[in-house]
Amino acid sequence: MTQKQTPDWQELASSIGNLLAPSMAKDHPNLPVVKAEGCYYYGADGKKYLDFTSGIAVENVGHRHPKVVQAIKDSADHLLHGPSGVIIYESILKLAYELQQILPPKLDNFFFANSGTEAIEGGIKLAKYATKRPYVVSFTGCFHGRSIGALSVSTSKSKYRKYMQPSWLTYQLPYAHPEDLPEGEDPADYFPKKLERDVEKLFNHQVTPEEVACIILEPVLGEGGYIIPPKEWLAKVREICDRHGILLIFDEVQTGFGRTGDWFAAQTFGVTPDIMAIAKGIAAGMPLSATVASKELMAKWPLGTHGTTFGGNPMACSAALASLDVMKEEQLLKRARDMGAYAMEQLDGLKEKHSSIKTIRGVGLMIGIELQNADTGKPDGDAVMKVLDECLERGVLFYLCGNAGEVIRMIPPLTVTKEQIDTGIQVLDQALDTLKNAKEE
Questions:
Q1: Alpha helices in 221-380 (DSSP H)
Q2: 58-103: pLDDT as tens digits
Q3: Which of 5, 93, 131, 309 is the most buried (most CB within 10 A)?
Q4: Contact predicate 423/50, CB 8 Å
């Protein structure tokens, strides 16, 4: 039997549905690329695309930063795989030490894994094991991953939970969503008081606080729409946890490593959790994550209660170390704050021009542009998809989020320049013009 010759990759790309599961292949926009560098993807069509997704908040130091690439090559010369515990190696220990220097106090002990979802699973397991309590409380709109445990606390979209029979000992509370704010109220005052009332109802009617192991949340909603809560609300969550002996978990998978203008959103908002899940921007594209807690808390989670084969891969740890060096050397935290403020200023001007923009929310270089139907004021996910397609045609890649897909994510690498921001916003302006003109015809 003659073996068929493998088609060239562009032929394979055209038959993606025959090769990959729809749940993997049907995302937007399936752009065929041959290379990435800095803030750009290079398409198979010969075009260069400005990337305002950072590989979904992963490439914080830019695609293929030379120092990261060299670190991976150097590591590959010595060690490709290291099941930590069976063997031990320098890069994993050095990374743990360096992370201790940038994380909030007492978050100084690490279980390394491969993905954000794994870090979340680890955090929930740690909380339940350490407290010997069965229940978890999360917030409506948060996204924590799609494996069964993480999905039990993910509520950004109901379709993610469909047919999953979510009976996983979890309860949900309302997030501090601006749409719930009564007119004339101060969010810094209203939302902490509302949370106190919501928690009292939960504990009086559904579960006692003595049964709750942890409360988990994203300090800024990611997939749920880039919602930024008042720091007073996050402080109230911390206070409630302290009052009842409940552990607080921050999902910093998307907000971490400079995205909000600090190393972590915990520092941006001045609230420190007991457990943190970190991933995405940690290793510039290599699969790596960590569940982080204090040494005292981790000591309650002994050998055999959790494990990993690939977590803390030596090449990924080397990439993470190089990425941390780049962030420090190139002052990317300050750059995220400065470029984020500049982008928000330019986008505010765009909002004045386009009635389809309902609101713009941002912290650091984590920016959401919410579109609405200009006639009804309702979220307009269809408009977002049209705008994304128009921007792609003009060479800029954005992504979406929000319950109805109504929010455009603007999350460029932290190395982005003013000129690149200007280019991206100009293209966005043109795409919104096209949308408006199409409606008027």
A1: 231-244, 265-269, 295-298, 314-329, 332-353
A2: 999 999 999 999 999 999 999 999 888 899 999 999 999 999 999 9
A3: 131
A4: yes
Residue with tokens 């100009």: 426
pLDDT at residue 7 in the model: 78
pTM more than 0.85: yes
DSSP code of residue 12: H
- Six-digit token string for 110: 């690490």
Handedness of CA 181, 186, 191, 193 (dihedral sign): negative
Nearest to 355 by CA among 379, 371, 378: 371
What stretch of H or E contains 62? none
- Please answer whether residues 60 and 332 qualify as being in contact, where contact means their C-beta atoms are separated by less than 8 angstroms: yes
Q: What was the pLDDT predicted at 166?
A: 58
**In terms of DSSP H, where are the helices of 62-147?**
66-76, 90-102, 116-131
Q: What is the DSSP letter of 219?
A: S
Residue located via tokens 């010369």: 77
Residue 314, amino acid? P
Output the pLDDT for position 391. 98
What is the DSSP track for 92-108?
HHHHHHHHHHHSPTT--
For the beta sheet containing 357-363, the strands, ordered from the edge strand earlier in sequence to the opposite edge, are 357-363, 366-371, 407-410, 399-401
- Chain-centroid distance of CA 242 in Å reads 26
The b/e string for 96-130 (b: 16+ C-beta within 10 A; e otherwise) is bebbeebbbeebbbbbbbbbbbbbbbbbbbbbbbb
Using alpha carbons, select from 424, 410, 386 the residue that is nearest to residue 56.
410
DSSP-based helix, strand, coil % in the chain, nearest 5: 45, 15, 40
How far apart are the C-alpha atoms of 317 and 324, rounded to whole Å?
A: 11
d(CA 374, CA 235): 36
Question: Minimal CA–CA distance to 320: which of 80, 68, 107, 76?
Answer: 68
pLDDT tens digits for range 203-227:
999 999 999 999 999 999 999 999 9
Tokens describing residue 352: 């004045």
Q: Which of 407, 390, 409 is nearest to 399 (CA)?
A: 409
Amino acid at site 161: R
Residue 183 burial class via C-beta count within 10 angstroms: exposed 0-12, middle 13-18, buried 19 and up: exposed
Kindly tell me if the per-residue pLDDT of 10 is higher than 80. Answer: no
CA R_g for the chain: 22
Do residues 36 and 63 touch, judged by C-beta distance below 8 A?
yes
Over the stretch 44-53, which tens digit does the pLDDT of each residue have? 999 999 999 9
Which ranges in 206-251 belong to alpha helices (H)? 231-244
